[in-house]
Design the sequence.
């Protein structure tokens, strides 16, 4: 088994699909179909149920050939904020997780990305469900009607 960490991810192990060679400079590894390997890793990240880690977010961003600045512009954040997400210094926002997965899915044409608007609406609804609006009336404090 080969621990493939050139992707920037720590948990990728190859059962096969590679050749190890001894060179005058030490051991070298040749990966068969590197694009296919990265595609398989990406699709696995799209389907995972837990939130993306910063490293996984970075992997997908690089696969999309987008800079931190480009992603930052999409989210109205600085490239330094994106770097902090990717380094794990700041928690990756759920919206960024969902958007990144769907951006990648759109490039694969696997259908997941077509639900982006619905997913964003669901996420927005979750954020607003946490708010409880209360108002004082002549009858006392009451839950306010949603606007």
Sequence:
């Amino acid at each position: 088994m080969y621990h493939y960490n050139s992707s920037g991810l720590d948990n990728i192990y190859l059962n096969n699909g590679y050749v190890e060679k001894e060179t005058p400079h030490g051991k070298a590894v040749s990966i068969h179909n590197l694009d296919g390997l990265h595609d398989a890793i990406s699709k696995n990240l799209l389907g995972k149920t837990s939130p993306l880690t910063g490293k996984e977010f970075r992997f997908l961003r690089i696969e999309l050939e987008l800079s931190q600045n480009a992603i930052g512009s999409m989210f109205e954040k600085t490239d330094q904020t994106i770097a902090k997400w990717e380094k794990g210094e700041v928690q990756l926002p759920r919206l960024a997780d969902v958007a990144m997965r769907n951006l990648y899915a759109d490039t694969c044409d696997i259908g997941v990305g077509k639900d982006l608007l619905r997913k964003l609406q669901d996420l927005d609804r979750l954020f607003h469900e946490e708010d409880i609006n209360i108002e004082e009336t002549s009858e006392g404090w009451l839950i306010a009607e949603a606007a």
About this structure: Residues 13 and 78 are 33 Å apart (CA to CA). The domain at 34-143 is CATH 1.10.260.40 (434 Repressor (Amino-terminal Domain)). The beta strands are 2-3, 13-14, 18-23, 26-31, 134-137, 140-143.
